[in-house]
Design a protein that fits this description.
- InterPro entries: Yippee, Yippee/Mis18/Cereblon, Yippee_fam.
- The chain has 155 residues and is an all-beta fold.
- The protein is globular.
- The chain contains no helices and eleven strands.
- The strands form three sheets. The chain has a six-stranded antiparallel beta sheet, with no helix packed on it.
- Helices cover 0% and strands 43% of the residues.
- The structure holds zinc ion.
- Zinc ion binds next to loops.
């Protein structure tokens, strides 16, 4: 004869969401265009400041803000001096002249980018990709890991 086992109530699932701070909230649906930076007119250390609520990357040499973690597209890039990250957009960054360069993934038109505050070359911008599989990189920025520090809100 079967005895129906009465299962004791399982412990409630951890509410994982509550462990995340607000910046980690997943983006659901289209967001209203939030101002990503505040421009200041007076000359100060940096030209642009990123939102204080976000994890961000800053110049390792002068701490100028460079990019929001939200704008990180990929961590699997190779720079000339090691690993590099691909970003959607950056701030406080100046651009050199574009030139054609053969990279690991083929021929691209790229322009070196530098920190506008301390003038250190940080990486490059993809101006144009010539292979369709690489087109997603156009207009995006590479910053080498050894020129960035994680700033604000990281564990
Ligand atoms: Zn700098």
């Amino acid at each position: 004869m079967c005895v129906a086992r009465v299962l004791t109530a399982l412990p409630p699932l951890q509410a994982l969401g509550s462990l995340c701070s607000p910046w980690a909230a997943p983006r659901v649906g289209p967001l209203p265009p939030a101002p990503a930076m505040v421009r200041i007119s007076k000359p100060k250390t940096f030209q642009a400041y990123l939102d204080d609520c976000h994890r961000r990357y800053s110049c390792a040499h002068c701490r100028a803000h460079l990019a929001n973690h939200d704008d990180l597209i990929s961590k699997s890039f190779q720079g000339s001096q090691g690993r590099a990250y691909l970003f959607n957009s950056v701030v406080n960054v100046g651009c050199g002249p574009a030139e054609e360069r053969v990279l690991l993934t083929g021929l691209h038109a790229v322009a070196d980018i530098h920190c506008e505050n301390c003038k250190t070359t940080l990486g490059w911008k993809y101006e144009q990709a010539f292979e369709s599989s690489q087109k997603y990189k156009e207009g995006k920025y590479i910053i080498e890991l050894n020129h960035m520090i994680k700033d604000n809100g990281w564990d």
